[in-house]
Amino acid sequence: MSLEVIIGISIVVTIVLVVGVKLVLQKVVSFKMDESTIVNFLKESSETSANVDAIAAATSLTAERVSEVCHKSLLVVESSDHQGAWCLKS
Fold first, then answer.
1. What one-character DSSP code corresponds to residue 65?
2. pLDDT value at residue 69
3. What per-residue confidence (pLDDT) applies to 34?
4. CB-based burial of residue 16 (10 Å sphere; 0-12 exposed, 13-18 middle, 19+ buried)?
5. What is the helix (H) or strand (E) element at residue 78, kind and residue range?
6. Across the 90 residues of the chain, what is the mean pLDDT of every consecutive 10-residue run?
7. Is the separation of the CB atoms in 59 and 66 below 8 Å?
8. How far apart are CA 50 and CA 67, in angstroms?
9. Side-by-side strand order, sheet with 76-78
10. Structural domains in the chain?
């Protein structure tokens, strides 16, 4: 292989890696921001738990996003008292 081909392949691989890392970091930061919004809502709420629709209405996140974040979060657990409700992990 010529030097130009090796340099070209190296540049392409580097660009792909940089874009991949950027996308992963963007997803992680987005998740953490949404998780923080939900956790703050649950901390400030007078209720011990809240359902997805109530969290979505109060946080301006979609119900689907709230459900996704709550399922993945280590700080929020499904309430044993209310079906479909979420509360902070003790």
1. H
2. 97
3. 97
4. exposed
5. strand 76-78
6. 92 98 98 97 91 95 96 94 88
7. yes
8. 12
9. 50-51, 85-88, 76-78
10. 3-88 (1.10.10.10)
